[in-house]
Amino acid sequence: MVTRRRMLAGLAATSLLPSAGWSSVGTPDYLSAARTQNGTYLLAGLTVAGEITFTIPLPARGHAAAAHPERAEAVAFARRPGTFALVMDCRDGTIILTLTAPEGRHFYGHGAFSADGSTLFTSENDYEAGEGRIGLWDITQNYTRIGEFSSGGVGPHDLKLMPDGETLVVANGGIETHPDMGRSKLNIPVMQPNLSYVSLAGEILEQIELTARLHKNSIRHLAVRQDGMVAFAMQWQGSKSDTHPLLGLHQRGSKAKLLSASPKAQQQLQGYAGSVALSNDGGLVAITSPRGNVLHVFDTETGQPSAILSAKDVCGIGPTATGFLFTTGTGHIGTLSEETAQHPLQWDNHLIDISHNR
Amino acid sequence: MRLLALTTSFLLAQPAWALDPAALVDTAINSHILPGFTTLTEATGTLKNTATEDCASDSATLRAAYHEGFDAWMAVSHLRFGPTEEDERAFSLAFWPDTKGFTPKSLSKLITSEDPAVLNAEAFAEVSIAAHGFFALEFLLYDDRIQSLGSDAYRCTLIQAVTNDIDRNANAILADWHTGYADLMRTPSKDGRYTTDLAAVAELFKTLDTGLQFNEEARLGRPLGTFDKPRPLRAEARRSERSLQNITVSLASLEQLARILAAQTPTPAKSLKGAFSLALGHATELEDDPSFAGVANIQGRLRVEILQQYIGNIRSFVLLELGPALDVTAGFNALDGD
C-alpha cells in the first residue's frame, strides 16, 4: 500500500491528514509502550513535557520501537519472545502493516532503520540453534523480509545504527532462551555476552567482550553519541554478594570503560540496568534500575557519577537537550529536576527518542 | 556543567506492613533452608562414600545413593541466592538445561584423554562446570555411549571425583548458611545485603516464584516443545528416569516454603494449599511415564500439559494473592527482566 506511506514534508503535510490525530496536540518527541489500567497494552507518543500525543492499541505487551528516519512511521515490537512487530503511521496511529518473524525466529524487541530508511534491522533469535540473528526487511518493498545475518553472538537485544550510517552496533546479551521454555534462561554458567559492530552486509567488524570475571554481565541496551561513542547498559546474572559495573562506554578501536557509583549506591541497582540514554549534548549518560527504584547519571568525560535519583519502578529514559526524561511503571514522567506528568498507565521498559527523526 | 543534587527522592511509595516479616524469615531458615541443606550434605556424604567403595556404573547401591542425593538437591534447588550462587556451586551441582550438549562433550574429553585432573579435588574443581554434578554423574551411570568410552578404571576415578565434588559443594553451601548468610537474612542492616526484613521476605518470595517457573517452563516446557514438535529427549534427567520425580520433589518442597510464607495470611494460604494439592495429585497419575516419553503422543502429552497448567495455576496464586498480601510484589518494569 504505497499510497499510505506518505512522506512527511513538514507541517503542510500534517494539515492534509483527514483525521486530527495527534497533530492537534503536537509532534511527539518519544515513543513508549505501556499497559493500561484494564490490562490492555498500547503504544503512545509523548512530548518532552510528558504529554501524550497519540495512543495506538497493541495486541500484547510491547517493548521498544524504532522510528523511520524520514517518514512519520514507527515499528513497535512485541516483548520477547514475541513474533509480531507493527508498522504504524505516527500521524494518526493507523497500523500500516504487521511484520511476522519468519519460521524458527522470534523478535527480541528492538530494531533499527538504515540511514536512508530503506531497510529495517531487527534483533532475532534462531532458537533451535541458540544463535542471534539480525533480520533485514526492505521498506521499499512494503517491508518484505529480504535476508538475515549473524548478530555475532547469543541473545542479541538492542541494536543501533552508528553515526557513519554503515555500521550496526549490537548488544549480544549472551543469554540463550527458547520460546517453548518461556523466558527461562538456559545457559547462565557458560554465557558469553559481547558488543558487536557489524556492517550492513553482515560482516563482523569489531567485537568487545568484558573480562572473564564479568562474563555474567549481560550487555542489553545501547545509546550512541554523534561521535560514535557507544554507551551500553548491563544486567548482572550471577551472585549478588558483590556489586559490578552496569554501564560501559566504548569507542571503536579502544577498550571499553566501565562506570560505577560508590559500592553502596551500586548495590542499590540490584545488578540490573533497564535502559540507558545519553543527553543530547553528549555530556551525561544515565541508566535506570526499576529493581532498585533508582536512576544513576554519570559525566561522560570524567566517568564520575553526577546524580542519583530515586523513582519507583523507573525504567524508560530518553535524552533532552542537557539531561533526560524518564518514565516509570507507576505512570510518572520526570526529568532530573522535576516530575512533569503522571498518567493512569504503566510505562514499559523503553522511552524511544524520535525527535531527531523530523 | 550544571551540578545536580546527589540524592533527590520522590515518587517513592512507602509500603504498609501489618505482619511480622522477621518471623517468616526465621521460620523459613529454621524449618526449610537449614534442614534442606543439612539433608543434602548427609545424602552427598553417603554418595561420596558409596562411590569410594563401589564405583561400578551398574552398582545398585551407587545408583540408589545417586537418587537419594538428587532428591535432596531437588528439595533445595529453588533456593538460588546467596550461598548457592558463590563459586558457581548450584550450577556445579546441576548443569541443566544443557542445550549444546556440554556435559557429554566434557565427559568424553576427560575420559578419552585420561585427564589427570580427576586425581585431585582442586584440579577437578577447575575443569568444565558441565562435567560436574548430578547430571554428569547421570551420564556416567546411565548413558551407554559414555560408558563405552575409555577404561573402567578411569571412569571409576571420574565417578569418585564427581561425587567428591558434589559433596564438597553441598558442604560449602551449608557452611556459608551456618557461618553468616542465615544471620545476614535474620538481621537486616542499612549496609547489608538485606536492608529490611521485608527485603529478606521478598528474596524468599522470588525464590518460590522462580522455582515454580522453572518447573513449569523448563522441566515441563522443554520436553513438551510444541504440539507439532514434542521433545521427549529434552526431559530433565530422563536417562535415570527421574524427570517426574524431580518435579514432584521440587513441588513438595516449594509447597513447604509457600506454607511458611503464607503462615500469616489465611486467604492466600488456603488458595495455595488447594493449588499444590491439585498439581501433586495429578503428578501421581503420571507415574507410569517417569521420563515424559509420553509427550510424543497426544494422550501422554495432554497429561503432561495438565501438570504444567496446574503449576501455572499455583504461580498465579503466588503472584496475585501471596505477593500483594506480603507486600513484596515487584513493579511492572522491575519484574520484566529485559
CATH topology of the domain at 210-358 in chain A: Methylamine Dehydrogenase, Chain H
**What global shape of chain A is seen?**
globular
Assembly type of the shown chains? heterodimer
Number of helices of chain B: 12
What's the name of the CATH homologous superfamily of the largest domain in chain B? M75 peptidase, HXXE motif
Helix and strand succession of chain B? EHHHHHHHHHHHH
CATH architecture assignment name of the largest domain in chain B:
Up-down Bundle
Radius of gyration of chain A: 19 Å
Q: What's the CATH superfamily of the domain at 210-358 in chain A, by name?
A: YVTN repeat-like/Quinoprotein amine dehydrogenase
Q: Any low-confidence stretches of chain B, pLDDT <50, length ≥5? A: 1-16
**Largest interface (C-beta under 8 Å):** A-B, 58 and 47 residues
- Give the overall shape of chain B, derived from the CA principal axes: globular
Cα separation of the termini of chain A:
23 Å
Mean pLDDT metric of chain A: 90
Termini separation of chain B:
32 Å
**Approximate helicity band of chain A:** under 10%
Number of distinct beta strands of chain B: 1
Helix and strand composition category of chain B: mainly alpha
What's the mean pLDDT score of chain B? 93
Write a concise keyword list for the protein shown above.
A: 358 residues; mainly beta; Methylamine Dehydrogenase, Chain H; 4-stranded antiparallel sheet; 2 helices; 48% strand; globular; B: A middle domain of Talin 1; 12 helices; disordered N terminus
